[in-house]
Structure formats: structure tokens, C-alpha cells
DNA sequence: TTAGGGTTAG
């Protein structure tokens, strides 16, 4: 009967089955109590198990151990530590199996002092040279950022297994000490796939993608078979590099070896396509998955948002809600980016109230995206409200608000907000200065703009990038100081790009400066020979100055170089979608009606000075 | 002991 009952305990999956067994255990077979409680803990019924534990007259070491291990595994770290402390106070015998899980909970909660005390205790009990205990403390010190102590523990291990090595390799990897990690790896006599993965991941996380790929190749030469972890690490490298060619090779490897990649591999594959700009291929992977979790959904929605396809992002978000999957902070942040791109105040309002009602706005990512969305949809008041309510403000929150003010015409407020930011712990970055210089540009504050530009490096230690130079060029150009802009370009410490020359060229058109326009166009012809806009601008400029021959020459140059003039569309977004119009375009379904009304409008504007109110629906 | 999605600027 006893063995029959033990089988019943081990095979029970449902709480009701266990309750039936319980009645027998408590009355007749108390020796099975341990197995019963362990089964309950394995099935995560911690409360039920704990009530039984508390009712028992005597609890032995094994029983304490299974509780501490279960609590730690289920991330109930405080409970794990409390149980250990209770055990110690009751003078219960502590064993080597008691230590690793409680140390893990100390790492998770970052209770450093307690962890160190437990370490002394473990040595006192004579577990100082137990491999499992040593590995646990090594991991604890590594996670606490105390690599020196982790190393001392490692050096004290007499017979090191691959796990001890791997653990320290990944610790060095996290602190960026790649060479220390590599020395350990090279010193290993016996490696596992995990050792290779840890080393590849170490190079990848520290930016040395080339070396990561070399290690992957060497791993295969040495006959180690890559596993799913290896593939995910490689795919994330391809994603970071935007290397579609290599990404496709990894995909082929997966297709050849793994008929059904797991969810993490499939998500990494999607992410690789997304970051390489191949959104439709990413969607194919998404559609192919037979099971999707919130990370999958989130990756695809973000993929659309990051690749300028906001409508697809929102459509997929609706799909996700339809499948009863509750969005989290990550999905919401991407959806907000999509709304901001649409610039649609109505969609923005809708998602804004949803977020507030569901309580998502306490997350920094969500709050920054929300305020940014409001400001891009033109609702600066709402943006300011979100910003003011934020309890935690990071650099992105400040940048979003400064940018929002700058773009909505509140340049002085943007600059004042920067002054407020300087009073905080948050340090400005390159994006902060793009926003500040934009603000100066909008109100023509040349001197202040130049001062900000100088202070970037001298005070804030930020090297100006080409976009900062572009802001200054724009600042000069908008004030009509074209020669100063040109001199500034010549002295730039980075190579001027199309934005720089394009800004100068546009200013030349406005201020009819043919001489500088010719220089700018020459530069642009090299940088973007296919862009017809530059040729058109120059040709028009010649025509306006009466230089017809030159104007014709540019036009014929365009023909010779086969540069096509791209059509300029006007467009308007209404409730039912986007309506595009081209010159002489009659493709719109209500084209005739529109033409009649436009004609009427122009007739009236000639004959009648009074205000005209015309209602027309597209 | 090794693995996947997010916010700002251009």
C-alpha cells in the first residue's frame, strides 16, 4: 500500500488528486509526508505545502532543503532566505545542499552582506571545498559585481569542472573584461558547448563581432555541434550588424537541422530580418510559428514600428488583443512609436486613454514614448502633463520633452528645461544637443546655438556628430548667412553629408545664391547622383536669374545621366485613410467632384472678396 | 554556466 501511495503522490498532477492522497498520508502513513510535500512544491503549491510543514511537530534538514530550493526556483527569494534564517536559529543542521539555493536568492535580491555571512558560515561548517557550494558563491560574487572575490573562490577550487569555468567566463564578459574571459577559455582542458557559447556571446556583447564569428567557425572545426543558444547568439550578431547574408546562412542551418525551431530561436530569426530591414520576411517567420508568446508579438509590432510601417504595427496590435493576449510595457511602447509616426491625434488620444486606464504609464519607456507621441501629434500640453507626472526621469524622458518643446515652437521653454535638467543627476547626451540646436534654429538664436555647440565638447565631453554640424549650418542658413554657413562647412571635423549640402542648397534657392548653389550641387552629384531634386533646384535657380542656357544645360544633363524627376505628391489623412494627389492626377474616385469644387473656389476668389465656406467630403 | 521584443534625435 505504501509504495502504491508513493506512486500516486508522484503521478498526481491535480490538486484534488493530492487532497485525496493527503487524507491517507496524515492518518496512516506519516513517513510519506516528505514525498507528499515535495510533490506539492514541484507543482508550485507552496502555500498548501507550507501549512503542512508548519503543522508538523519536527522538521528535518531534508524538508527545509526542499522548501529553500523550491522558493528559490520560484523566485520567492525572501521566503527562501527566511526559511534559511529560521533553520539557523533553530540550530537545525545545515547541509551542503542547503547553501546553493539560498545563496542564489541572496544574489537575486542583492543582499550582499547576508550572502557574505552565509559564506563564512558555509566555511565554518566545512563546505568550503564543496564544488557546488563554491560555484554558488562564485556566481554570487560575480552577480554582486565583486569579480575579485569571485576569482578567489574560483582559484580555490581544486578540481574545476567546465561549469566553474563557464560561470567565471560569463562574469568577465558582463564586466567587459574580454581578455580575462579568453585566458580562462584557453586554459580549459575540457570544454562544453556552453563554454563555446559563453565565449562567442562574450565577444558579441562586447562589440567584437568578427572574433565571435571566428570562434563559431573554430567551434565547428573542433567538432562541437552548435545548439539553439549558439544560433540565437549568432542571429543577434547578424541583427546588430544588419548582415542579412550571414543571417540567411544561419536560417539555412536551422532549416536543415531543426524542423521546428523553438520560440526563442524563431523570435531571434524574426529580429534578424527586422533589423536587416526585411520586415515582410520577418512576418513570414511570425506567421509560420505554431505558438507565440508576448515577446514574439512584441518583436513583430516593434519591427513594423521601427521600419516606418505604423499602420501594420497598429493592425497587428489589434490582432493580438483579439487573440486575448494582454499587452505589456514593451508592446505598448512600440505601439506608441507607431502612433507618433502616424501623427494622428485621434489614434493617439485613443491609445493614450487606454494606457492611462490600464496603468501602463508608470514605466519609463512607456511614459517617454507617450509624451513623445503627444508632442508629435501636436498636443504639447498633454506631453507636458505626462512629463510632470513622471516619478523617474531618465535621459530619454528629458530629451523627449526638450525635443517636443523645440518642435512645437516653444524654443525658449526647451532651453529653460535644459537648464532644469542640469540641476539633476541626468547627464545630457548627443541627442539633447540636437534638440537644443533645433530649438535655437527655430527662433534664430545664432550666438546661443554656437555657444551650445562649443560647450558640447569643452564642458560636456560630447564629440559633435554630423547632425550637430547640420543644425549649425541650418542656423546660419535660416538667418541668410550663407557665406558663414559655407565657411563653417569647410572647417567641419567630419565629412559633410547630403543633409549638410542639401541644407545649403535649399538656402541658396531662397536667397538666390547661384555661386554657392553650384558648389553644393557638385558635392551632391557625387553623394547622391540619383536624386533629381538637387538638379531641379539648380535649374530653377538659373532660370530665376535669367541664365536660361545654364538651366537648359542642367536639364539635358539630367537626361544624359538618366535622372528621373520623382513625382511630388500632396496628401491628406482622413478617418478612412490617406488620400494622395499628383499633378494632373484623375485617379481619385471623387476626382470630378473635387475638380468642380476647386474650380468654384478659384472662381469665387477672383470675383468675390467675402469669406467662402465650402464643405466637401472626400 | 550560454539565448529572444521596447522609449528620444536625424
TrEMBL record:
A Pfam family assignment: PPR
InterPro entries: E_motif (IPR046848), PPR_At4g14850-like_plant (IPR046960), PPR_rpt (IPR002885), TPR-like_helical_dom_sf (IPR011990)
Alphabetic keyword roster: Repeat
One GO term (biological process): RNA modification
Gene Ontology MF: a single term: RNA binding
UniProt PPR repeat ranges: 161-191, 192-226, 293-327, 363-393, 394-428
Family: Belongs to the PPR family. PCMP-H subfamily.
PANTHER family per the UniProt record, alphabetical: PENTACOTRIPEPTIDE-REPEAT REGION OF PRORP DOMAIN-CONTAINING PROTEIN, PENTATRICOPEPTIDE REPEAT-CONTAINING PROTEIN
NCBIfam families listed in its UniProt record: PPR
Listed name of the protein: Pentatricopeptide repeat-containing protein
Species the sequence originates in: Nepenthes gracilis (Slender pitcher plant)
